[in-house]
Amino acid sequence: MSKDKPWWMKPVRVLQFNIEDRYGRYVETITGKELVELAEKIHANVLVIFARDPWGRTFYRGGTVGPTHPKMKGDLVRDAIRHGRERGIRVVVMVGHTANKYLYHQHSDWAQINRNGEIILLEHVPLETQHYEPEWPQLCINSPFIDHVKREIIEGISLDADGVFLDSFRYQPDVERACYCKWCQRRFKEDHDYDMPREADWTDSRWRELWKWRYEVVVSRIKELYETAKQAAPDKLFMYNSHPGGWAGRTNKVVEDARDYMDVIFAECSEVDHQPPGFITEMTKLTKAMSGGKPVWSSRNYFHLYRTVKATTRIAIKQGLREAIIAGGSPWLLVFSVSYRQNPEHLDAAEQVFREHEKIEEYLEDAEPVRYAGIIVSNNTRDFYGREHPQKYVDGIRGVYYALTHSHIPVEFVAERDASSLDKLGEYKVLFVENMVCMKKEIGDAIKKYVERGGGVVSTYLTGTRDENCIRMYDFAYKDVIGASFIGVLRKPWTYMYIDDIKHPLFKDIEEKMILFGDMSYEFRVRRVTPNMGYQTLLDYVHGQALGRIGLAVGNWGHEYTLGRSPPPMAKATDNPAVIINNYGKGKSVYFTSQLGRHYWRTGLPTFMKLIRNSARYSGGTPPIIVDAPETIHVDTYRQGERIIIHLLNHTYNQLIQAMGTGTTKQPLPPYSSVESVHPPRAIIPVPDISIKLAISHGTKYRVYLPLRDKELDYVVNFKETPGQIMLKLPKLEEYEVVVVEPRK
Fold first, then answer.
1. Are residues 616 and 712 both part of a single domain?
2. Exposed site from 42, 54, 367, 487, fewest CB < 10 Å?
């Protein structure tokens, strides 16, 4: 890496220490020196701390943006910065949190107000609560609060911190969280010459304009704050919290649009404990795509779920931090003051990972993913098609991602902003366009040229049938590539795909000829099924090859097992294609009339995973790395020039219990046990004899070694079976391993 690049462009290890206690239980016992020593002890080289907390209290003296915390001894922030300088640890201060109770009491008219005239809060307040005083009222970035944030940034930089960390603005477009304060109404009227709509009407262009305008507000404010920071100190870090898996994913759109005004993006992954293994890796990759490749630092909370006083297991901490590393991000441990004082015993887990990270820094700098499969992610589709139910689109994206990950197929995300670039698309052998309903013409044209030049594409359901505003176009954006025209939707609660050519490579290792589409409603209160899950598109002018047909069920629900919940059996196959393949130019297309990824995400059934895996290999060719290991092993592969780095992370855990979110059902009796059970991983089962086949340069001799173990591995040239391929074996994978393959000098 060039020496003139800023420090934050290198891999870092972050300790974030939050004091978010209303009464500051342990504030008077904590010093800046102690926090720097803690960072040094666990081998973190960046410390992130509050400049001020959500109650408006600052952790430094002599400031003008709020009262000093009354329980603080000394000057926590200044002491941390001074001791950090002495020990080579960067100190970044958090500013601009949109919750500020002290400021709210001084300027109540700065608060965000919903359409019903109620204050928008960051916290969640149960209905049983009476006469509740707002604890974390959200302040509006269209009000003079934004000038206060600028003062916070300037003051934070004046403390000689190494950078400022802007927490994500809780400024939502969703109607129940959207701000209708006088400042917003005034600015919107000035911009659009009509009043802000108060009802969500997606057929009304004025409502859609309001939705987009709220993003524009956030982006414009981030730009202002970025410029404020850079004018004060051009060499200081400016970082933003993307929180990619929270807040309906709306902040991913903010990062995509404001990427030019951020040096680093913090991917807060606080939902990790009730998400699948690999969630932090997924969120890191998603944030990297949205940011256009800017550095991403991803967090694992020290505590379990939201129990901030209690540490989670050592395994959960270690594997979570490693998930960030294997995705090409930097690991970030978030510790709260109460858990630090009451349950610090598991900090050694973070130390172990940070020591590993320190040891393999050489193999992380400037390493680029080995790209094979790309998943285009459309924030417009999530917003304008998913609307109040983003999972309607996001479930499909996540399903494709995990199916490819479980199949050990290299996969990255592609931001919508970049999907019209033929150069960007050309980095991948195969693109997945999973139900990307809303599509700019430029993206459809780019995909068409990409396939024409030899790329592979896998499309599903309503992909490309509407424009970027989700206005119906009544046909596919790239129908010539798909090999058919769109003429409508078969709206049935349950449908099937009947496979005609079971021997085709698309159905490798699949034995069933009748594949069910649809899913029951787990609440089972308003309806029997989950909306749209069984729907399939109807096609005309088919010139691609149909490999399967849509099958009709005998009714709207089945009569076996639990009446009304179970799916009905298939009645007959129609003449409507369910999957077609098509050769276009030098490339290949696969199109499914159903929502393939969404079904894998919801059901986890292996048939859907195999269909996604086989589609990738059929249209994209043989992947550059093939790993023979259980699907619980996560593999990510990178290049540094001629060097190849393979990360293997073992997610073969004890039997996790993750029942959160299953909801309540319409039953005459209460459930047998609670549905909120979430257990962390407690044990890892080692996996022996992992085989890796790798495409390399013919005739070159290689060195294969494990830098974390200082151990070399043998390999076998496999040119007779597959030209340009070597084969190596990892005898045993315990928790985490890095394999390096490089030419011998």
1. no
2. 487
- Residue 650, pLDDT > 90, answer yes
Distance set, CA 662 to CA 460, 508, 529, 658 (Å):
27, 33, 14, 9
| Separation of alpha carbons 202 and 658, rounded Å | 35
pLDDT value at 343 more than 60? yes
Strands, E, within 253-308: which ranges? Answer: 264-267, 296-301
Same domain, 491 and 352: no
The answer to whether the CB of 627 falls within 8 A of the CB of 633 is yes
Mean pLDDT value across residues 483-505? 97
| Contact between residue 650 and residue 684 where contact means Cβ atoms under 8 Å apart | yes
Give the model confidence (pLDDT) of 45-60 as tens digits. 999 999 999 999 999 9
| Angle subtended by helix axes 391-406 and 279-291, to nearest 10 | 110
Closest to 365 measured CA to CA, from 639, 738, 646: 639
**CB atoms < 10 A from the CB of 310, how many?**
14
Confidence of residue 662 (pLDDT cuts 50, 70, 90): very low
Helices (H), 635-706: none
What is the span of the domain harbouring residue 530? 373-623
- Which of 136-145, 269-278, 324-333, 651-660 bottoms out in mean pLDDT, i.e. has the lowest? 651-660
Q: How many CB atoms lie within 10 A of CB 203?
A: 7
Burial of 695 from C-beta contacts in 10 A (0-12 / 13-18 / 19+): middle
Tokens encoding 456: 């592979």
What's at 636, amino acid-wise?
Answer: D
364 part of a folded domain: no
If you average pLDDT over residues 70-94, what whole number do you get? 97
Nearest-angstrom CA–CA distance, 173 and 180: 11
Q: How far apart are CA 320 and CA 325, in angstroms?
A: 9
pLDDT of residue 654: 86
Listed residues 623, 644, 662: the one ending a domain: 623
pLDDT tens per residue, range 154-180: 999 999 999 999 998 889 999 989 999
C-alpha 214/C-alpha 344 separation (Å) is 41
Question: Looking at the structure, do residues 418 and 494 belong to the same domain, yes or no?
Answer: yes
